[in-house]
Write a structure and sequence with these properties.
alpha/beta; Rossmann fold; 43% helix; 434 Repressor (Amino-terminal Domain); 12 strands; 15% strand
Length: 342
Amino acid sequence: MANIQDVAKLAGVSISTVSRVLNGTARVNNEVKKRVEESMQTLAYQPNPAARSLRTNRSRIIGLLISDIQNPFFMRLIQGVEEEALRHEYSLILCNSNESPQREQQYLDVLYSERVAGAIIVPTREYLGEANLSKFRERNIPIVAVDRRVKDKDVDAVLVDNVRGAQEAVTHLINNGYRRIAAVTGPLTVTTGRDRLEGYRRALKDARIPHNPELERSGTFDAETGRRLTNELLQINPRIDALFLGNNLLTLGALDALHAHNLQVPIDVGLVGYDETFWSALGTLSLTTIIQPAYELGATAALRLFQHLQNPAIQSRQEVVLTPSLIIRSSSLAREPQPVKV
């Protein structure tokens, strides 16, 4: 395996010149730089990230702390972060809080002790806390929140417009003739849960459909919660005629509950979910879904983190909001409007 000495010998330059080309720490003549790069390519030379970190006193590792590794949505987000990190020649440490604030705190401590260059976090809570932020700030370790907003003034956020997505989903159901539309959303302690419930309410208000708290449920973002809360909603009389689900796992649980009650989608109950998954368009039933740009969400969060790393003097907090899209399939076919019952 080629080393830096081999590259320097083939290019006819000093080891320090090769190092400057690798690290971008000083200007190098374009002709010399080209010769070094061609030598690295010829020798298939791969720089050692750990060694480079020691030379430059800067870590080449970033941390990514997500909230639920079992959710397919986060797999695309991870891919977006990872590919952007590799493009910037950084490695990635992946952590999973499993929606636990306690585990989140443990992993924040790990990322700090490992001296990562920066951290991207899907938070389980609205405040990461001054104690955490001051530690990271002292070491110039930037933090970017992704998917969920935090209220800490030093933390940038990259989000999807969840209010807009939910409002578009429920408006679609209303336009297709559904009137007793129930909502199963995520925990109201995080912005994704609250914002999607807000979008549901706005759609009903715009259509002048009376708000009925009995038709709202919220809980953790998992299939068992979707099953349990849908079962509760199916006990209400008169029966609901449509469901808005706040994420893909809640949708999976809701479908199980509907099947257990021998109800067909959309003949008995229309349905729109949030988050695209591989099974959304499989089989005889295809699901109308709000699609989040998960890959772009991760890549944009990584880009913002690298902006901080390249310019540590950045002070202003920035919030980037991406737009979701509605994909219409067979789970929300139009029906004749029915009189509103409250």
